[in-house]
Write a structure and sequence with these properties.
Two copies of one chain form a homodimer.
Chain A lengths: L3 H4 L25 H16 L6 H8 L3 H8 L2 H33 L8 H18 L3 H13 L4 H25 L5 H20 L18 H17 L10 H4 L2
The first copy, chain A, binds a DNA duplex through α4.
Chain lengths: 255, 255
DNA sequence: GCTTGTTTCAAACGAGCGTTTGAATTTACA
DNA sequence: TGTAAATTCAAACGCTCGTTTGAAACAAGC
């Protein structure tokens, strides 16, 4: 039962997002209607997708009236977005905070070298893993939902995700650029694209093609081991020698 | 306008899947009802997902009667699976054929070394790229649809994909194992998982987080250039030194 | 030409959908 | 305590869904 947060002093600053304290005990329910709807929606959207999940299914699972969903969130689309902002905003904020922490620590070092790729990858990965661990149920559901959303072509989903990620990604892009000054800018863009692919595929944990990775189930959920496997893989890919333009046809013509 | 197939003698054997010749001119329509439904379904499923795509939308786009979908395919689920088998069966067959071709060529070599990772990755990648290029419209649609399906938790989709991929993947798994004898079996499983992530993310081409890779649009569709970027990245990751169990906490505790 | 089997067609089936409404109920605060 | 705002509720609104049906149109073989 290794805990990420208690092991490291680096990530302690990332706590304190637990719950906004109810003002003047104005809410004495176990959990208020809005949150109950969000929780049910998160799980059901993950399980069936946006279109296949009806508001009736959500409100029934949340034990609230059907009209409560429209009353509190306006429409089904807005509810969907609320499910994302609730978790994505803090997670991406944590990523930026952790990256800044790492960079300050690196600067304090007498050598003052730029961050390694592994460190930057960790800064992306750890807040996501924290999310999947903190809320025993909701966090894992949300990451799977996120994995689905990445592949969803619905315009309102794509535009929403772009806005949610823009700040965080440009920041990490710059960090990778400093860590890999010899990689051309365009090549680096592609490699970050590949990194996001592995990352989302792994975090989504859809075990889609589970016949590939015949990991024992005990492995899943072992965040530390997972990062230990993923970070070297991605870092090595990021640092790989850039194929010269002269061996353009290598993979196609060589016999 | 660089063409994969015309450049290389290796992939010529993969042609000839164009169309089953109509027997005795029994069908003289431009294209028969079944195919028209499949084409429309492929595009619309890609665009809106399974649940959000109605049979009315499909049959209208295909210019056929609504009942024709149920008549020819039985149900909406069976139609969905038919869309996949039409393209996935030949593609995975091509992958196996190409891998075998590469392996025979390597054996013929006096040195008789096992295939490089890059070659094995090419054998996975080239048939997919061929698909995206051959049918100007349908192929690209299908790969995006496939990318969506990877992240879909619907049981009937997951079970279907597992069956479709089982043979091909165990074969490639063995090939990678020969190319990377020093990588532990379990570690290799995970790395193949990461490879599939990058691969599907890239092939799906959802340009989800397009703010990462600010490639000029001319790059997309340039199959050769894409493979030239992806193969070294993945190969380097596959070959990366395995993190020892002693530096388990490296990414978490090190400041 | 008639028969047999295949394919197309318009229409309808019951069910579930997102959203709205207006009244009932609960809450907040003077 | 009284009043106004916030929230919950049951019911209904039009609409679209996947599927079925039975007749019409078409094809092929004797």
């Amino acid at each position: 039962m290794t805990s990420l947060a208690t092991q490291s002093t680096n990530v302690t600053a990332l706590h304190g997002h637990a719950e906004a304290a109810p003002k003047l005990a104005e809410k004495v329910e176990i959990v208020d209607t809005k949150s109950r709807i969000l929780d049910a929606a998160e799980e059901l959207f993950m399980e069936h997708g946006f279109e296949a999940t009806s508001l009736r299914l959500i409100t029934t699972a949340a034990n609230v009236n059907l009209a409560a969903a429209n009353y509190h969130f306006g429409s089904k689309e807005e509810l969907f977005q609320a499910v994302f902002t609730r978790r994505l905003d803090p997670m991406n904020r944590d990523r930026l905070t952790l990256l800044a922490t790492f960079e300050e620590a690196a600067l304090a070092n007498p050598k003052a070298q730029p961050l390694t790729c592994e460190k930057i990858i960790s800064a992306m990965f750890i807040p996501a893993l924290k999310l999947s661990r903190d809320q025993e149920q909701g966090g894992k559901n949300f990451l799977r939902l996120l994995g689905r959303a990445y592949a969803d072509p619905a315009p309102f989903i794509r535009e929403f995700l772009s806005n949610q990620y823009a700040d965080m990604l440009s920041r990490f892009r710059a960090a990778f650029g400093r860590a890999l000054p010899h990689i051309p800018r365009e090549e680096l863009s592609w490699r970050l694209h590949f990194v996001m692919g592995s990352l989302s595929f792994t975090l989504a944990g859809t075990d889609v093609l589970k016949m590939i990775a015949q990991y024992q189930p005990s492995d899943i959920g072992n965040d530390e081991l997972l990062l230990k496997r993923l970070a070297p893989f991605l870092a090595a890919g990021l640092r790989a020698p850039v194929a010269s333009s002269t061996d353009k046809h290598q993979w196609f013509n060589e016999t």
